[in-house]
Amino acid sequence: MNTRNRCAWGSRQSRAGVVQRLVIHWSIFLLLAGIGSALAEVHPDKSDYTCFHPTPSALMREFSTDRPDQTECPYTVDAGHVQIEFDLVTWTHTRTTPAMDDYSVLPVNLKLGLTNLTDIQWIVEPYQYQKTHSGEMSSTQRREGFGDMYVRVKQNFFGDDGGHVALGIMPFVKFPTNTGHIGNSSMEGGVILPIDVNLPEGFDFGAMTELDDDRNETGTGHHAEWVNSGTVHHDLIPDRLDAYAELWSDITGENHKSWTATCDFGIQYTLEKALLWDAGVNYDVTSSAPNMTLFTGMSTRL
Question: Which residue has the higher pLDDT, 267 or 253?
Answer without folding.
Answer: 267
